[in-house]
């Protein structure tokens, strides 16, 4: 289960986010036209602590993209998989184009959550001394995290259990036979590498390559079973998406109807005011 996203200390209004994006032609058009910041600002969310494009891609694509496909573009859910793949290609191409432009200009604008290359120069208790390259610049610094207090852990655990912050469940991706093998090997050897900076990934890969066919089949069967599990859960997930999306559409229709009723009431009030003014004029005559 997923929590409702929290941004700048407040729950993200997913219904409002859906409206703001679709009125601009959908998420792809928003990204192409560089309207991510405008969308986020319309939600009264501060962008000083969160990159608008990153926030939009992270939450809209993860939670609302399927709704957009079915209820905004009126496309069948069966074609959503291909739309997801097309969006991924679009994002990759856009990122590549931005990277080429950065190289040409000798600059590189980083987004929250993006990956950069670096070297670990040393280690201390809560982090690392690192060297990173950004374009033609070489930067040195530290990478660290603040240890979590017991009070923070209790607060997070209590918050995670709140039903009001639970969203629909997206199935966990299926694992391959090799993934199961790596997990098994890790459990066996993790105590040998406790406190070290590396695990023998290459050695595990070699073990897999040399694994007898009979032993490998055990893991491949596990992978096949997990793939079937994923297929079944995804079918249930898409059914849930349709149900939730129908509720959103109903809210949109109700809001439009309420606006029409309010406009009609304003017209009636204006007409009544005109009638009263006319009556006063006649009385004065």
From TrEMBL:
PROSITE patterns found in the cross-reference section: ARID (PS51011), HMG_BOX_2 (PS50118)
Residues covered by the HMG box domain: 171-238
Low complexity: bias regions: 259-269
Any one GO CC term of the record: nucleus
Residue intervals of the ARID domain: 1-72
Region of interest (Disordered), residue spans: 150-171, 259-285
CDD domains, sorted: HMG-box_AtHMGB9-like
Annotated region of DNA binding: 171-238
GO molecular function, one term: DNA binding
Signal peptide: none
InterPro entries, alphabetized: ARID_dom (IPR001606), ARID_dom_sf (IPR036431), HMG_box_dom (IPR009071), HMG_box_dom_sf (IPR036910)
Gene3D superfamilies cross-referenced by the UniProt entry: ARID DNA-binding domain, High mobility group box domain
Keywords on record: DNA-binding, Nucleus
PANTHER family: HIGH MOBILITY GROUP B PROTEIN 10-RELATED (PTHR46691:SF6), HIGH MOBILITY GROUP B PROTEIN 9 (PTHR46691)
Designated name of the protein: HMG box domain-containing protein
Source organism per UniProt: Thlaspi arvense (Field penny-cress)
């Amino acid at each position: 289960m997923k929590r409702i996203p929290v941004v700048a200390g407040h729950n993200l209004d997913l219904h409002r986010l859906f409206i703001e994006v679709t009125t601009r032609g959908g998420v792809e058009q928003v990204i192409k036209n560089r309207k991510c910041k405008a969308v986020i600002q319309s939600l009264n969310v501060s962008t000083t602590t969160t990159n608008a494009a990153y926030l939009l891609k992270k939450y809209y694509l993860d939670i609302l993209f399927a709704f957009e496909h079915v209820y905004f573009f009126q496309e069948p859910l069966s074609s959503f998989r291909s739309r997801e793949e097309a969006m991924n290609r679009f994002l990759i191409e856009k990122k590549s184009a931005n990277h080429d432009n950065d190289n040409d200009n000798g600059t590189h604008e980083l987004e929250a959550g993006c990956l950069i290359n670096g070297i670990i120069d040393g280690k201390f208790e809560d982090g690392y001394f690192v060297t990173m390259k950004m374009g033609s610049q070489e930067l040195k610094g530290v990478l660290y995290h603040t240890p979590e207090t017991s009070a923070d852990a209790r607060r997070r655990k209590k918050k995670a259990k709140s039903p009001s912050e639970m969203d629909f469940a997206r199935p966990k991706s299926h694992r391959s036979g090799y993934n199961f093998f790596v997990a098994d090997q890790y459990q066996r050897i993790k105590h040998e590498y406790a406190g070290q900076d590396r695990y023998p990934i290459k050695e595990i890969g070699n073990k897999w390559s040399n694994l007898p066919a009979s032993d490998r089949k055990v893991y491949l069967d596990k992978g096949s079973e997990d793939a079937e599990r994923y297929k079944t859960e995804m079918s249930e997930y898409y059914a849930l998406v349709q149900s939730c999306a129908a509720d959103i559409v109903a809210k949109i229709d109700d809001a439009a109807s309420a606006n029409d009723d309010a406009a009609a009431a304003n017209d009636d009030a204006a007409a009544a005011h005109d009638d009263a003014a006319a009556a006063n004029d006649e009385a004065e005559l």
